[in-house]
Amino acid sequence: MHPISFGSDNHSGAHPLILKAIETANNGFWHGYGEEEYSEKVQNKIAAMFGKNAKAMFLMTGTGANVLALQSLIKSYEAIFCAETSHINMHEAGAVQKFTQSRLITIPTTDGKLTKELIIPHINLMADQHMSQPRIISISQATEYGTVYSLNEIKALADFAHANKMLLYIDGARLANAAISLGCTMEEMTAQCGVDLVSFGATKNGCLFGEALIFINHDSAAADAVYYRKQLTQLISKMRYITLQMETYIENDLWKETALHANQMAQYLAERLSEIKNITITQPVQVNAVFAIFPKEIIPPLQEKYHFYTWNEARYEVRLMCSWNTTKDMINAFIKDIVA
Ligand SMILES: Cc1ncc(COP(=O)(O)O)c(C=O)c1O
Fold first, then answer.
1. Which atom of ligand 1 is nearest to 209's Cα?
2. SS3 118
3. Which of 139, 141, 189, 274 is 20 to 30 A removed from 63 (C-alpha atoms)?
4. Ligand 1 nearest atom to the CA of residue 144, by list position
5. Ligand 1 centroid distance, CA of 130 (Å)
6. Do residues 281 and 273 make contact, with C-beta atoms less than 8 angstroms apart?
7. What is the pLDDT of residues 161-189, one digit of tens each?
8. Domain region containing 35
9. How remote is the CA of residue 59 from the centroid of ligand 1, in Å?
10. What is the Å distance from ligand 1's center to 71 Cα?
11. What b/e string do you get for 55-76 counting C-beta neighbours within 10 Å, with b at 16 or more?
């Protein structure tokens, strides 16, 4: 246990309102596998947020949501474009490749964001029967670098995908933080931009566990996904522990409150760091992540007291994550130790 961690937004606990929801789920007897009344209630709330045709499936993990999304859209001879730094490429132990048997085409970027210009040269090489065929563009919103696609950038990628018989998937482990950063609704950021599928993360933003995978206008993929979810072992019998969390997360706009706080803390952290000589912030701070190059000698002693990761060992770039329960006092203590 670390009293203060900037290691991950997963390192924080669950919000008290979420623990209350867990308590409610714990009382009495409920149908299993999402057949209790809360699943339908949450479905309606998701449709109100993401557009009337949106259909949600609930899972335990973000990796599960990514795999289920991609598996329900792809054949084994097709390919997925993603940023080299994407979670599906770097941190899922090949889960997407294992379950979809398809090819990941990983594209280097400077800020974690894909553009059609970065994808086109790859598509041009995929014209014949010897090649995996382009099928999905997978982006993360917010990206693994804490950067955010604008609505125009998402729309441009969706239009480009559709013009090339592809689909656009968003890994939304930090979708809440991105929506707060853009000041838009979920529907504006997804359905109205032409996004096909999106995951809506909850674990990193104050829930205990649980993610929703949202099919926008894709009924047949959603029908297949029911069975793929079971095969992926993500159909949990006590689903009410997820749906009741989701209902609380959405009902009181809890997701907005927690994401806003996490984003504001990252802004504050970035402001304080930028006052320190020899520290360079390397990415725009748009959500709850700060990437910065630290003098190499200060990293090990700081890491003894605070948990955080060195993202790029070669250039001493660290990743500092804030979450719904990061406080200014924690940041002030960290800054004090940096300058000491
Ligand atoms: C962008 C992104 N997507 C997906 C995930 C996967 O989440 P999980 O660890 O719940 O599988 C993470 C977790 O760190 C993430 O950062």
1. 10
2. helix
3. 189
4. 1
5. 33
6. yes
7. 999 999 999 999 999 999 999 999 999 99
8. 16-251
9. 13
10. 17
11. bbbbbbbbbbbbbbbbbbbbee
Tell me the C-alpha to C-alpha distance, in Å, between residue 191 and each of 154, 251, 262: 11, 20, 25
24-51 pLDDT tens trace: 999 999 999 999 888 999 999 999 999 9
- What CATH number is given to the structural domain containing 114? 3.40.640.10
Is the pLDDT reported for residue 125 higher than 90?
A: no
Query: Does the beta carbon of 140 sit less than 6 angstroms from any atom of ligand 1?
Result: yes
Same domain, 23 and 148: yes
The per-residue pLDDT for 11 is: 95
Our answer on whether the CB atom of 59 is closer than 6 Å to any ligand 1 atom is: no
- DSSP class of residue 5 equals B
> pLDDT, tens digit, for every residue of 297-327?
999 999 999 999 999 999 999 999 999 999 9
* pLDDT (0 to 100) of residue 38: 86
Binning pLDDT at 50, 70 and 90, where does residue 217 land? Answer: confident
Cβ of 63 below 6 Å from ligand 1:
yes
Whether residue 221 lies inside any domain: the answer is: yes
The reply to whether ligand 1 has any atom less than 6 angstroms from the CB of 147 is no
For 265-299, the pLDDT digits (tens) are 999 999 999 999 999 999 999 999 999 999 999 99
What ligand 1 atom has the least distance to the C-alpha of 171?
3
Does 102 sit in the ligand 1 pocket, CB within 6 Å? no
Q: Is 203 in the pocket of ligand 1 (CB under 6 A)?
A: yes
What are the b/e assignments for 227-248, b being 16+ CB within 10 Å? ebbeebebbbeebbbbbbbbbb
Written as six digits, the tokens of 190 are 């997804």
pTM beyond cutoff 0.90: yes
Among 220, 251, 282, which residue terminates a domain?
Answer: 251
Provide mean pLDDT across the span 122-144: 94
Q: Pick from 188, 222, 251: which residue ends a domain?
A: 251
What phi and psi values does residue 140 have, to the nearest 5 degrees? -110, 135
Residue 319 in tokens: 């990743």
Binding site membership of 173 for ligand 1 (Cβ less than 6 Å): yes
